[in-house]
Amino acid sequence: MLSSGPNRWRDSILPRKILFDVCKRNNLPAPVITGEDTMKIGDNIFHLADFEHGKHLSVHVGIPIERLALYVLHKLRLCPEHVETRPLYNLLQPEIEQGRLELFVDVFPKSQGPPGLPLVIQPRQPKPFVLRCIIWNTSDVILQDVSIMGEKMSDIYVKGWLSGLEEDTQKTDIHYRSLDGSGNFNWRFVFNFEYIPTERSIAIRKKEHYWSIDTTETKQQPVLNLQIWDNDKFSADDFLGFLMLDLNRLTKPAKDADYCKLSILDHHKNSTANLFEMKRVKGWWPCIDVDEHGEQILTGKVELELEVVTEEEAQARPAGKARGEPNENPTLQPPKRPETSFDFISSPWKTWKHVIWKKSKWYTIAVLCIVIVILFILISLWSIPGALWTSILRGKPTITVSDTSNKFPASLFEINDKSTLDHAHSFNDLPEDECQESEVDEQMESEEETEENDERLLHKFSLEFMEKVLDCYDKVDEHGKRKRR
């Protein structure tokens, strides 16, 4: 690798970076640099002296570690064709780059005769693929919020996208009021992308800038990004955890949530597989976050089902996004969530039933009883003075009734003061002139006139009632028996 001169290394990516990327794409152990001229890949150890022994090197050679990386690429036959990238200039504007030309040059010595037939060097065309990701459940998600009754809870939802295709971000519905970190979704993400199997990368075509005319093709690793969030009504949503899955190097998931640990994501301790070869996988993966000390912590677990199909297979076995049509392969039923999972704004009755009443029903009953007693006392205090004052103004005659015997109903009445009846008759026997004068005086105010009319009616009713009582009393002897005529 030359650092200067006409044959210097012109690629924007250095050999060491190419070696790391190639090892990652081919599921090989990552290179470990143990010195300036030593590198280890898996069980193989490479020394720079083994490759340059007996060679007369130019003074323009590059740094040792880059030369060693280039030698390793050639030895392992992992190095793609070296593509030269040359800038293009115009004489009218000699210092302004007008574009770039990518090419490579093959030099054949004449002594070996004419070269072979020309090869087709057209870039490999990506093939359309579809990734179907079903979010079944979540478990042990950290609880971020506190309800009005002091309970820890989270309103969980999951969103995901493929690296480089962030504009196609999808998210599930919300599992409200999760009290134990579990969530039920039965929700399907569907991502369409173009994949190059030989290079194990996704081809992404997009404009670099808004004003760009042509699209630029870039290649990235097929990485699925999933994030768990806590939904908030009146503030920004809270981030709970994330999961990144390389579809070329997919770690084996756990079959049960209890066995889902952080160690599952360790590529060095666990075997990996290519989802494009497996086609389908299902299980539990851990979601992580980074604490204040920079260490990874477990913030939740998610149950996924991943399936990669070609465009032809997707048309033969269609499946819609979320739970929409066509809801097939497999059919997703609405999740069976507990009764406590609801939106408190759209379901006030459930909020009262499952939150307020469940936690404080005895306090609520006690408060209602106290309120009823207070209202009864207030109504009594408000009505008793009016009734007493009305009785005083009306001057009702007092009749004492005692129970002298249980043998005959007429004996239930006993008049203790007969002067009351005489006083009532004498009131009606007043001269008409005096009654008229008193009525004229009392008619000065409308309220007093109304009270007097009511009083006269009451007196007439009392007289009729007492006359009937006296008639009944005359017909009964001192022993409470009826007298014979």
In terms of topology, how is this protein built?
Blueprint: H1 15-25, E1 32-35, E2 38-41, E3 44-47, H2 48-52, H3 64-75, E4 84-88, E5 99-103, E6 127-139, E7 145-146, E8 152-162, E9 170-171, E10 175-178, E11 183-196, E12 201-206, E13 216-220, E14 223-230, E15 238-246, E16 250-251, E17 272-273, H4 275-278, E18 280-290, E19 296-310, H5 311-316, H6 348-394, H7 419-428, H8 432-442, H9 446-474
Antiparallel strand pairs: 1-2, 2-3, 4-5, 6-11, 6-19, 7-8, 8-9, 8-10, 8-14, 11-12, 12-13, 14-15, 16-17, 18-19
Report what the structure shows.
One of its GO terms (cellular component) is membrane. The chain is α+β, with helices and mostly antiparallel strands and 485 residues long. The chain has 4 domains: 98 residues, no CATH class; 190 residues, C2 domain (Immunoglobulin-like), CATH 2.60.40; 53 residues; 79 residues, no CATH class. The protein is built from 9 helices and 19 strands. The strands form 5 sheets. It has a 6-stranded antiparallel β-sheet with strand order 13-12-11-6-19-18. Helix 1 runs parallel beside helix 3.
